[in-house]
């Protein structure tokens, strides 16, 4: 299964993974792939300055949920970090996860937890909603690409985000 873009050239699985995650989860503002550390970095944006108490509670709940999920899956997490920064009345929260233990269901869990905590303050790309079968296809692609990225030795640090309804991917 390969991903193609304009010009029909093959796209690496790591690029395809980033594209599929952004297409499937419009709540994810940006996503980075660090091949040296084999880590995905998801950025979510709150449309207001969150208080220290709110951020602490959210980080604690996210970390606990990630740890419990992986414990139930029988996996030992290598990287699970949550950081934040505020700028211009926005709060950006970054979740870092190693691709070795990350699975599609955990990504869905993380997105759902952001919905639960931020509600209407979660910045989400507004675009045409995907049909149920399109969502299932994107989830299958994410699963396939995650498996492929685990076994591949990529060497490009990738950064992906949305702009004007398109997903853009750059290597740093």
Helices and strands in order:
Layout: E1 3-4, E2 10-11, H1 13-24, E3 30-34, E4 39-46, H2 52-73, E5 80-87, E6 90-98, H3 104-118, H4 132-151, E7 158-163, E8 166-171
Antiparallel strand pairs: 1-2, 3-4, 3-7, 4-6, 5-6, 7-8
Can you offer a commentary on this structure?
This protein has helices spanning 13-24, 52-73, 104-118, 132-151, and strands at residues 3-4, 10-11, 30-34, 39-46, 80-87, 90-98, 158-163, 166-171. Helix content is 40%, strand content 27%. The protein has one domain (3-171). With 172 residues, the chain is an alpha+beta fold. α2 packs antiparallel against α3. The strands form two sheets. The chain has a six-stranded antiparallel β-sheet, covered by helices on one side. Strands 1-2 form a two-stranded antiparallel sheet. The model is unreliable at 1-10 (pLDDT under 50). The chain has four helices and eight strands; from the N terminus they run ββαββαββααββ.
Structural class: alpha+beta
Which series of helices and strands comes N to C?
EEHEEHEEHHEE
In terms of DSSP E residues, the strand content is: 25-35%
Number of strands: 8
Taken together, the total number of domains comes to 1
Tell me the quaternary state. Answer: single chain
**What gross morphology would you assign?**
globular
Q: What is the averaged pLDDT score?
A: 87
Low-confidence stretches: 1-10
Helix content: 40-55%
Strand order of the largest sheet: 5-6-4-3-7-8
Number of DSSP helical runs: 4
Indicate the radius of gyration in whole angstroms: 16 Å
Distance between the termini: 26 Å
Tell me the major beta sheet: 6 strands, antiparallel
């Amino acid at each position: 299964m390969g991903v193609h873009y304009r010009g029909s050239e093959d796209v690496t699985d790591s690029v395809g993974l980033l594209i599929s995650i952004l297409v499937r989860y419009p709540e994810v503002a940006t996503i980075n792939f660090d091949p040296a550390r084999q880590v995905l970095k998801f950025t979510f944006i709150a449309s207001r300055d969150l208080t220290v108490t709110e951020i602490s509670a959210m980080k604690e709940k996210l970390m606990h949920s990630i740890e419990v999920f992986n414990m139930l899956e029988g996996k030992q997490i290598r990287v699970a970090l949550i950081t934040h920064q505020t700028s211009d009345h926005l709060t950006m929260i970054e979740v870092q996860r190693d691709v070795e233990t990350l699975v599609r269901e955990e990504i869905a869990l993380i997105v759902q937890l952001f919905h639960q905590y931020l509600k209407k303050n979660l910045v989400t790309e507004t675009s045409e909603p995907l049909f149920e079968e399109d969502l299932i296809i994107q989830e299958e692609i994410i699963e396939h690409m995650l498996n492929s990225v685990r076994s591949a030795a990529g060497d490009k640090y990738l950064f992906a985000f949305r702009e004007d309804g398109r997903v853009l991917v750059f290597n740093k």
